[in-house]
Design goal:
- With about 220 residues, the chain is of the alpha/beta class.
- It has two domains: about 120 residues, FAD/NAD(P)-binding domain (3-Layer(bba) Sandwich), CATH 3.50.50; about 80 residues, no CATH class.
- It is built from five helices and 13 strands.
- The strands form five sheets. It has a four-stranded parallel beta sheet with strand order 5-2-1-13.
- Helix 1 crosses helix 2.
- The longest helix has 14 residues.
- It starts with 7 loop residues before the first strand and ends in a 24-residue tail after the last strand.
Length: about 220
């Protein structure tokens, strides 16, 4: 490695592409910062049942990679985070990353799920494309990594009305932290990989199929 070159890489996007890139880099000896804007890695592939063309189970392929990514000593997971800025040149970049408050401490949470069981508020589940429901404090899907809930401030009764805090009361490890704040991390990396994935097609643009008008059109 050339003098002055930073031996760390940032991967932006925690879908299957970003996860595989992070694992390959970590196995090659690089320190990897995996930045994902949602509360868990996995991306769109985690929502699929089967994969084309082999018809293999999607989660059977993805889940071991998620676990390995979460356990690898050279992969730093920065979920619920976004890249704010990137300055510098190849070999030495300075990246600023906004790490949003989960209001659940990752170092204390065991993923037991008690907080979610006790939470009285519900909202449409983004993971289930609105066809299911989740709580105001939630883990996006059962195999999610990290298995640490996040509190949706727009739904949470405490953040909206100043009362409730049942999740905090029943948490056996004291992991719920309503005072947790957003923080901006400044990281030095030698290279950046963008694995931003894709957005599903907006079916409302094809009005002839009745999406949004008929409940059986998904």
């Amino acid at each position: 490695m050339r003098p002055g070159v930073v031996g760390a890489v940032m991967v932006v996007g925690g879908g299957i592409g970003g996860v595989q890139a992070a694992l390959d880099l970590a196995e090659a000896g690089f320190r990897v910062y995996l930045v994902e804007k949602s509360p868990a890695i996995g991306g769109r592939m985690a929502q699929l049942d089967k994969t084309f063309p082999t018809n293999d189970c999607s989660m059977c392929i993805l889940s071991p990679k998620l676990v390995e990514c979460g356990r690898h000593p050279d992969v730093v997971l920065l979920t619920y985070s976004e890249l704010l800025s990137l300055e510098g040149e190849p070999g030495r970049f300075v990246a600023k990353v906004l790490k949003r408050a989960r209001h659940v401490r990752e170092d204390l949470c065991t993923g037991c799920g008690t907080c979610m069981e006790k939470c009285p508020r519900k909202a449409p589940s983004e993971f289930d494309e609105g066809m299911g429901q989740r709580k105001a404090i939630y883990i996006p899907y059962p195999q999610a990594i990290p298995r640490v809930p996040v509190i949706d401030e727009e739904i949470c009764t405490y953040f909206q009305k100043g009362k409730c805090r049942l999740c905090e009361k029943f948490c056996p490890t004291g992991a719920v932290d309503f005072e947790q704040k957003d923080e901006v991390l400044e990281l030095e990396v030698g290279a950046v990989i963008l694995a931003l994935g894709y957005r599903p097609f907006d079916a409302r643009l094809k009005e002839e199929y009745g999406y949004g008008r008929y409940k059986d059109v998904l």
